[in-house]
Amino acid sequence: MGNRTLAIIKPDAVKRNLIGQIIKEITAAGFKIKAMKMVRLNKDSAGGFYEVHKGRPFYNNLVEFMTSGPCVPIVLEKDNAVLDFRKLIGATDPADADEGTIRKLFALSKSENVIHGSDSDDNAALEIAHFFSRKELLENYQ
Ligand code: UDP
Ligand code: MG
């Protein structure tokens, strides 16, 4: 298993001033922050990021939501990063998420669910490259 994953603190969480509380949960769970920035996505960038969902009924809403304000993409490192981070964030719908997960703690709905996590090592690599240049990753290397 790879040791990196991409998280995004989504626009709902940024608007609700939850960046600090969410990062606290992430670092308390043993993830190390390797790179981080705050950006506002445009339609092309959000649409490209979620290309796999194109044609699904929630796709247009998802792109609108992800472009509605700034978000915070973060490169995280830990052994077994992808699976452990999916466990930490919980199910897509907070109503189905386990107690103590980030979505259970903070999310208000299945669409506005405060955080993204990559679902495979291959997608983690693609998603990290979507937001961070090689230079940004190397410069932040600790
Ligand atoms: N989403 C939604 N309605 C759905 C399924 C997904 O609004 O029925 C949104 C939600 O923000 C979710 C994102 O689309 O996080 C990507 O969906 P996916 O199934 O990949 O869920 P995730 O991997 O984020 O848990
Ligand atoms: Mg997904």
Quick rundown:
With 142 residues, this protein is of the alpha+beta class. The protein has helices at residues 11-15, 19-28, 43-49, 59-66, 81-89, 102-106, 121-131, 134-139; strands spanning 4-9, 32-36, 72-77, 115-117. The chain has a single domain (4-141), classed as Alpha-Beta Plaits, CATH 3.30.70.
Helix coverage percent: 40-55%
Uncertain residue segments: none
Helix and strand sequence: EHHEHHEHHEHH
**End-to-end CA span:** 21 Å
Strand order, sheet with most strands: 2-3-1-4
Number of strands: 4
Fraction in beta strands: 5-15%
CATH topology: Alpha-Beta Plaits
The named CATH superfamily? Nucleoside diphosphate kinase-like domain
Domain count, please report it: 1
Proper CATH architecture: 2-Layer Sandwich
Structural class by sheet pairing and helices: alpha+beta
- Coarse morphology: globular
Biggest β-sheet description: 4 strands, antiparallel
CATH class: Alpha Beta
